[in-house]
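Example protein as discussed:

>
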Amino acid sequence: MKRYFYGQLIQTEMVANPRPYIFIMVILLALFGFYNYVIYNTDGYVAVEKLSPVAVNGQQLFQKNRCWSCHQLYGLGGYLGPDLTNVYSTEGKGPNYIKAFLNSGVKSMPQFHFTEEEKDALVEYLKQVDETGIYPNYDAEIEATGWVKIKYRNEE
């Protein structure tokens, strides 16, 4: 039976050889497999500087006590407490400031019963986090015209 569409003859039965399609699919699957092999068997980015053993202990304490539930590092984490990325180097703060909060807590922060060694480990961890950079890395002002003026801290 012949069919016409706007005067054009339409072929109703498609006769196709499946071999080229199977060959193309096999090649695509092989390339996909090779791609996955390369991705999952290649060493990823390794940080040049690693945490000291004391800081690793502090990181484990930070995670075990779920400090990230309320605090952030580089803006990632909870929003009940302040960002702790640069608490070590912020003027008026530092190791004693950190230990004071670890000793007594505040209204919304529980009082942890850390040993002196654990406090030192947490302080060392926060010190090494602080050395990785500044967060946020800018001071922004919104001008009357609506433009945002950004002054980067590390470009002073």
Helices lie at 19-40, 53-64, 95-104, 116-130. The longest strand covers residues 138-142. Strands lie at 3-5, 8-10, 72-73, 76-77, 138-142, 148-152. The mean pLDDT is 84.
